[in-house]
Amino acid sequence: MKNTIHLFRKLLPVALLCIGYSAFAQDSSMQYYRANDKRGINVFETTKNDSSTFTKTKVKVGGNFEQSFQTLRDQNTATPLTEAGFTGNVNSLIPLTNGFDLAMANLNIDAQLSDGIRVSLTTYLASRHHEDTWVKGGYIQFDKLLFLNSNWVNNIMKSVTIKIGQFDVDYGDQHYRRTDGGNTIYNPFVENYIIDEFATEIGGEIYYHNKNGLFAMAGVTNGELDPTVVAATKIDSATGQVNHYAPAFHGKLGYDKQLNKDLRFRLTGSFYADESANSNTLFGGDRTGSHYFYVMSNQNIANGTTLNDENDYNAFSGRYNPGFSEEVNTFMVNPFIKYKGLEFFGTYENANGRTITETGTRNATQYAADLIYRFPKDKENFWIGARYNTVTASAKGIANDITINREVGSVGWFLTRNIMLKAEYVNQVYQNYPTNNILSGGKFDGTVIEASIGF
User: Fold this and answer.
1) How far apart (Å, rounded) are the C-alpha atoms in residues 208 and 383?
2) Any residues with CB less than 8 A from the CB of 9 and at least 6 apart, and which?
3) In the 8-state DSSP scheme, what is residue 169?
4) For 65-113, what is each residue's pLDDT tens digit?
C-alpha cells in the first residue's frame, strides 16, 4: 500500500493538470464513449451515434472507487492433508469473520484528440491482487478518418469503428457487465462469473455497424497479457516441437435493436481462438481479484507462500480458471432482452483447451442467467436481481468432471448517477471434487454489501 500511495502522489500532479486542462476546454464530453457512471449500464460496444460535436482537443479525468463489507462463511469435507514445504493441514479453511474488505480504486483518463479519434487509459491504483499501481491498458479508437481527406473513406467510416492498443478483448458480452477492480458500476451483482472471461491483449478490432441493428467484429491480438520478445525454449507436449507464439483471433456477430420505446433485443455470438501461446490468460487475466475475499482458502499455504507484488496468494477465490494457457478455443452466445424495467441477460459458453504439458484438450462449459428489475419508471435508480451460474469442467489432475453452482440475489440503489449502493446474498457449492482436494464438499454463503463511485 505504501508503494501505491507513493505512486499515487506522483500521478496526482498529472491528474490535476489534466483536470485543469479539461476545465479550460469547458466541455469534457467524449465522442463514441461509454460513461463511467449509471449512463454506462447496458452499453456494450460503442455505436456510431455521434452524441457530441467536436470543437477542440479535450481531456477527461475520471475514477472508480469501491468499498465492501462481507459476512461470508465457508466449509468443506476434504480429508486432512499435509504437503511438503507447508505446515499443518493444507485442506483446512481460513476462519472467516464479518468485516471490511480491501478497497479498490481505478484512475481513468480519456482524451478526444480529434473529430472521431479518442484515446482511453485505465490504471489500477489499488486492488486485492496487486499492491502496486498497474496500468490496465490503453487504446486509440477511430470512428472518423478525416485526416485522409477522402470522401470514400469518410462514407465507409460512417459504419466502421477501429480500435488499436492493449484493451479488453471483445469476447462475449459479459465483460461489458463485469466488476473491474474499483469499477463496479456496470455490475448489478458484487462478483463476476465463476469463469471470468477477461484479458487485456495487444491487437486491433474492426467493427461494422448496420443501421438495421446488425453488427460484426473481427479482431486479432498477440494472445498474451504479458508480451515477450524472448524466443521460446519449452517443448509443446502435444507437438513435440519448440513452442511458438501464434496470434489469437476473435470475432463477434450480433443484432442489437431498440424495437420500440419499451423493448430492446440483443443477441450475439462470439469466439476466441489461440492455437499456441506463451501464457494465455483469457480466463485469468484479471489483475484486481475476486470480490469474495478468502473463501475456500488455506491459511497454512498462505503462510508458506512468498509474495512479491501480490497482496493475496489466492486472489481469485470463488472463481474457476480452467487453465488453458497453451491452447484455447471457445465460443459464447449472449441474449439480452430489456422490456421496460425488466432485463434478462443470458450466457452459454463452451471452452476447450490445454496447457503446454498436456497432449490432449479439456473442456469447460458455463451457463448463466441474470434477471434484473429496475424501478421506478424512467428513473430506474433501484433494482432487485437474481443470478444463476453453473460450470462443468474437466479439471487438470481430476478424473471426473467437476461442477460449481452459484445462486445470487441482489438489491441496489443509485443515490445519484455516480454513487451506487448494493447488497447481495450468495450461495456457492462445489461438487465432484476428490476427497483430498480442498474444494471437496466445499460451500460458501453469506452477504456482501458494496458502495461504489464512478465518474
Assistant:
1) 33
2) none
3) -
4) 999 999 999 999 999 999 888 888 999 999 999 999 999 999 999 999 9
